[in-house]
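Summarise this fold before class:
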Amino acid sequence: MSLFEDNLAEIEGLSQRGQTLSIVDLINANTIDVDMSAFCLYAVSNGASFLTSARPGNAGKTTLMACLLTFLASDVRIVPTANPSVISMMQAPIRDQKLCILSHEIGSGHWFGYIWGKHVGQFFNLMNEGHQIASCIHADTLPEMHDILVSKELGVNERDFAMLELILFMKLIRESYGYKRRVSAIYERDYEKGKHHLLYSWDEKTDTFIKHGDSTLLNEMAKTKSIQQVSDEIQESKFFIESLVKSGITNFRDVRKMVLGRK
């Protein structure tokens, strides 16, 4: 199969319910908004590693992770952690290949793509070798996630945890008619302070999303490009997401095609 089809198969394989939703589906459901989606598109397509997180099951963290994987650059190959040996093999740079190492979940279950123990620390260390990483985990807050990962059992060191560019938390709300899912917070790597800071949050009272200041991640990307170029690319990402929503295209395969063909 082609790289395009290989990656789509890996994304589709994340679905536990037989349907792979797209970022347009999530925007239409107000799970995430256009601005947040555009920021994630720009960051992930430029190499950002990420985790999605929620304590309860069925909150949508795997679905969100799948949507973000459709934002990967066209020359990046998704490599799942089918077994721990995959992580070991990736602990050295692979010439002329851009890889996103995908763990279906950081958890102790014996399911495909799950990792636990010392392999989690090794997984995070792959960022030092130039690889993107993507996974999800059961945690509701940044301190809770930190305590789980930066522990003796999992072995993620502080430096590697701080290197993670994006952390997205999901909120599951039970209502009389069913469930409501929201991206409750997006944290980004703070290059100035060496830790993560809150960039977006969800206001439960108004059911809207709030941005908290400027992105230091985008400022860091501006070091290799002009400020005007970064600004133009961010605006292009937002325009693209808006156009995608207006188009009515929702199938995740078609969304991936549009992402790859947007430039």
